[in-house]
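I hope you will forgive my troubling you with a question about protein structure. The record follows directly beneath this note:
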Amino acid sequence: MNMTMMPNARWSLDIGATPTTGDAVKFRVWAPYAKSVAVQLVDQDRVMVPMQRDERGYFETVVTGVVPRSRYRYVLDGGKERPDPASRFQSDGVHGPSVVVDPTSFRWTDVGWKGKALDEFIIYELHVGTFTREGTFEAIIPHLSYLRDTVGITAIELMPVAEFPGRRNWGYDGVHPFAPQSSYGGPQGLKRLVDACHAAGLAVILDVVYNHLGPEGNYLNDFGPYFTDRYRTPWGSAINYDGPDSDEVRQYVVDNALYWVTEYHVDGLRLDAIHGIFDFSAQHVLKDIASAVHAQAELLGRHVVVIAESDLNDSRVIDPPSVGGYGLDGQWNDDFHHALRVVVAGERKGYYEDFHGLTDLAVAVRNGFVYNARYSAYRRRRHGNSSRHCRPSQFVVFSQNHDQIGNRAVGDRLSTQLPWDVLRVIRALVLLSPNIPLLFMGEEYGETAPFQYFIEHGDPDLVEAVRQGRRREFAHFGWSPEDIPDPQDLATFERSRLNRERLDERQTALLRWSQALTQLRKKEPSLGAGEGTIRKHRVWVFDDERVLVMHRWAGDDAASLIVCGFNTSPVTVRLVEPQGTWLRRLDAMDKEFGGSGQGSVPTQLSISPEGTSVLIPTYGAAVFMAS
């Protein structure tokens, strides 16, 4: 019985290969297209065991003499040999046989772990393959104390880890949604990482892809109508969420979400590009996913969040079901990034043409969506709806992420484009905003290595198609095809690895600034300390001076004032509120943070109804706390 049918029952995966008692394994697969299905036991002289079909197209059998780590395939209609659509492990890659995994064999030590509420998250997005030289799950573990104590984050977000072709990929070409990437360390490696994160007090968010599957090793259509031609995504055929036989497809995806939460103890799911999920059913599949995950989390007794990536600017995604929403906990806010990028780098090509300086950035901080039914010149139509009623902690904000770096011509980071004084201002804005902050790996110290798009496909025609597709994609932004690195080239991957072992003085100072900001956020109730604390905020913009000011408070006494100056020369602004005495807590101009040590903002502000003039140094950033 599945979760959708029995929401009060603790979920377990009912498809794939499941060890039962002794040396028996139950095999179950949905294959409505097939007249017959057999299990081929690869390690037992390819013995074939026929399966029995039910009325919904599921084939099932129980086989004795099979143990964990045994390899198997399904044989469809006596001909096609295919890996399991619900394979837990693909030790030989996307085309190889599947491997039986005992989901109860790992010895978890996180019994007391309850997860974290979304408003406690300071997220660190990382790519497993390039975060360390080894490029494995377990190689991340020695760095967890650095992430927790030095960087100050509270959650890591793993880019997709479902089995993809080769050893080099961003993860969005995964084709085995239930199988952690073999070259990263497979199921045991991922479980060890999650367990170690929880021991370190860190939550784990997993990026999952429910809008498409990759082009190489995708055998789902041989089993049934997992895809539809009625819609198209930029990445290929859309998944069939609302056509004939879509009930089983929807359940497959809901099961996948529950699988990561239950068998891998993850604390959150980031749903990739939900604008590529097409569903005109009366109840959207996103609502199914969110409600199933939340129900399972309640049964497990811990926090689990569901966060969307969406360019729809549709508050229904994060509105509760009681008002017609899908009930997701949060979403990435690209409007914040785009407005910020226009402010600091003057970008005007592509979607950046829609954004116009600090005023739009303030709207993003204050309300969430900048495009809330406004006319978009880029889209040539109105876009979005209002998110003013949403909580600030429902929006994840960032100055960089894998897309916004990797989907540039050479994958260059802000640290190679902007003065480092600007990086400190950006860091203060992101980490102390009323939203949920996200850093991309290496951003904390100003990594200068690029993060480029890389693949390792086995089909030469597919490789060439990817090359040409990247060139066409960037043409809209005015980039020359010759500037685009070859995604198949090993050097492209190797250039994208972090170089944290050799930090220079400038990087070390920026890391100290990042740490000071995250520690302050975790300590001060007005900024982020305390689960469930009710916080409020106001935002002012001085357009001519290029200064943004955030006032945040929680209760009568806990209050903070954050000044972010994007000014290219010293300016004076006049503050008439918030009135009272404010003591400087942090100043980006301090030498320990890489500043000049000169031209700092005052150590104390006394703001009266008549107003107080404040000198803001070039690219000044400072934090004041109420006296």
About this structure: The domain at 16-99 is CATH 2.60.40.10 (Immunoglobulin-like). The chain has 13 helices and 31 strands.
